[in-house]
Amino acid sequence: MKLVYFASVRESIGCDGEERDLPGHVESIADALDWLVAQDERYAVAFANRAKLRFALDQQMAKPDAALAGGKELAIFPPVTGG
Amino acid sequence: MIDIRVQIEPFDPGAELTALHSIGGAGAVASFTGITRPDVSDAGAVTAIELEHYPAMTEAALRQLAQTASDRWDLAACILIHRVGMIHAGEAIVFVGAASAHRAGALAACEYLIDRLKKDVPFWKKEYRSDGEAHWVEAKASDDARAAAWE
Q: Which of A54, A81, B77, B106 has the fewest CB neighbours in a 10 Å radius?
């Protein structure tokens, strides 16, 4: 799965994206966050406040309980502030 | 006609209104232009805003919004322009324009487009102030409420 990060999430993690082999038990976006947090402290800090995270799966906005199955790109970012 | 532009360069709202005016069937043209305000706080005045975006998604999300508005209000034309990169205080960031047969559709579509853009489209603003500091702008609950009101 390709992971991409934006804005303060990108700054907190320290990179704008990466490729990760997510294990089979990781089924939803929320599962992916939990798994990443278990890998490295950086994610625990970046994802500390889940209420302030938003997601897109294959360039469509998605909720944390969305299934990852078949998805190619998961984007994690703060609430958007355009316009 | 749906025209979507995500660009670094400044744009001219007047030129866009002229383009909408010339669309056949348009009895009404309405628009919104968003400008970087030089807000002043204890940290000094806003000198610039840096706009980050999600390149693979931004244009498609804007196009989806424009198509929804066109279908809902039977628009003859819709233009959405959003700048990215560094934008100085006083410069325009975003333009939303709609042409329709009657004013109700054109005006409602413009309000819908900017209200929903602020919730649905992946842009993030970083504010630079005259004290040299830069901070990410926080999303506002009032923007969420305005976006939700259209559902």
A: A54
Q: What is the SS3 assignment for A9?
A: helix
Q: Identify whether the C-beta of residue B10 lies closer than 8 Å to the C-beta of residue B91.
A: yes
**Distance between CA B88 and CA B50 in Å, rounded?**
9
**DSSP structure class, residue A78:** P
**CA gap B105, B70 in Å, rounded:** 9
For strands B77-83 and B2-7, give the pairing: parallel
Q: Considering the entire predicted model, what is its pTM?
A: 0.93
Write out the two tokens for B132: 């040299």
The phi, psi pair for B98, rounded to 5°, reads -140, 140
Asked if A4 has any chain B CB less than 8 Å from its own CB, the reply is yes
Q: How far is CA B76 from the centre of its chain?
A: 19
Residues of chain A neighbouring B122 (CB-CB closer than 8 A)? 6, 56, 75, 77, 80, 82
Residue whose entry in the numeric block shows the structure tokens 């994610």: A43
CA-closest candidate to residue A55, choices A43, A64, A45: A64
B134 touches chain A (CB under 8 A): no
Query: How high is the ipTM of this complex?
Result: 0.94
What pLDDT sits at residue A8? 97
The amino acid present at B122, given as its one-letter code, is P
Identify which of A59, A61, A79 has the shortest CB distance to residue B56. A59
pLDDT of B10-20, one tens digit each?
999 999 999 99
